[in-house]
Amino acid sequence: MPLWYRLRPYVMVAPATVIFSIFFIYPIFYMIYLSLHEWDFISPVKEFVGFGNFAELFGNREFLQVLGNSLNYTLLTVSLTIAVSLLLALWLNRKGLFYGFVQGAIFSPHIISLVSVSLVWMWLMDPQFGLLNWILELLGMPKLEWLSNPKSSLMSLVLVAVWKGIGFNALVFIAGLQSIPKDVYEAAELDESGRWRTLYKITLPMLSPTLFFLVIINMIGSFQVFETIAIMTQGGPVNSTNTLVFYIYQYGFKFFKIGYASAAGVVLLAVVGLLTLIYFKLLSRKIHYR
């Protein structure tokens, strides 16, 4: 076999490999390098400080609160999005013009920019003139300070994320449901299996690869939340909605503490990587591939 023929596959993947290395691999290593140094983003990189930035990071109560906010936001967003999307998919997994219209309606928020979504929800959650408080007032319920109360602000952002994400997740679930062989359900009917038993014993196990995939991408996306926080709350009130990415942005591009912000970025990378690894180790063997 000629040498050029054996090298052809490597030549074909070389452009993608170079682009991936420049824009993904190199920034990760450079972030790790910056986390070990002090830099103000203007002058040359200053002296090596080792793990000093990490020590300052974990000695800062504000950062620990931000880390807790990120974990809470991710847990609530992923669990609610997956649960609501699965219920919608089970309901919409049928033929008919009405169900097709509903699928398109719930998917539409996914294609709208987060900036537009954030501005609309800021109006909806306005404590004085917002639509949500108007509805609560009609129902005889007290108005809520959706974004200005530390007790409700994070949950308000979770509500926005769930509203935007359920359409995409529901359609992926529907695709997974439609890939399940019909003869499996026919066999269950012959065995007189009830609806809930069929769901638990057949549908969910056969849907496990789809569920596995959606949990992973939703978890990573939730840790990367930025636009809604930057527009709707700016991390407030009282740091109650500040998450890791917005915290990195603040210290990197507002306070110009690039080494400190890079250390926070390394922590974010480590947290996401560790949670993903744990998720794969615990659940990958329970996935039913046909």
Q: What would you note in describing this structure?
A:
The chain crosses the membrane at residues 12-33, 73-92, 104-124, 154-177, 198-220, 258-280. It comes from Paenibacillus contaminans. Keywords: Cell membrane, Membrane, Transmembrane, Transmembrane helix, Transport. This protein is mainly alpha-helical and 290 residues long. It has one domain (61-286): MetI-like fold. Helix content is 71%, strand content 0%. The protein is built from 13 helices and no strands. It has helices spanning 3-35, 52-58, 61-92, 97-107, 114-124, 131-138, 153-178, 182-190, 195-206, 208-223, 227-232, 244-253, 258-283. The radius of gyration is 24 Å and the shape is globular. It starts with a helix and ends in a 7-residue tail after the last helix.
Give a quick summary of the entry:
The longest helix has 33 residues, at 3-35. The chain has one domain (61-286): MetI-like (MetI-like fold, Orthogonal Bundle). It is an all-alpha fold and 290 residues long.
